[in-house]
User: Fold this.
Amino acid sequence: GMGQARGKGSADTKSGGAARGKPSHRSPIETDARPHLTIRGNRARVLNVLQRNKQPMTAYEIMHELRKSGTCWPITVYRALDQLMSLGLVHRMASRAAFMACTRATTSGEIHVVAVCDRCGIAEEFPVPSVLPETLRASQGRSFEVTGLSLEVRGVCARCVR
Assistant:
C-alpha cells in the first residue's frame, strides 16, 4: 500500500529539525531588547546561541555551536553579528573580541555597562545614566562623529564571592 513507499520522495526519508524538537533556523525569534523586532535566518541562529550563553562568545565559539546543528561558515557568523550589532541586539566586548546578546533596550540618556566576572566569565548588562553627554557633544565639534560607546567593568560576581 501507500505506507510502504520507499525512495527519494517518500515521507519516511525526510526529517526536519523542527520535528525532532530542535528550533528551525527559519522560525523567528523575538527579543527583549527590541520587542517589536522579529529576527529570522542566520541572525536568529546566532542571536539564539548568544542568548543561551551567560558568557560572551567569540565568533568561532558561536560557529562551533552552530555546526552542531548543520554547516556554518565564519563569514556567515560575522555577517550576522554585524547585522545584529547594527540593530542594537548584540554588543561586542572590546576587552576580548567576544560578543553577547543585548538584554535591555537603551532609553535616551542611558548607556549600557557590561560587568564581567574575572573568575567565571559571566557577563551582565545594566543601564546607567550617561555621565558623558558633555564629553560626547564636545568631541562632535572636532571633526569626530561619535557612533557608539561601550563601557566594561571587571570584578567578581555575587556567586563567585560566596
Remarks:
- The helical segments are 41-52, 59-67, 74-86, 133-140, 158-161.
- The chain is about 30% helix and 20% strand.
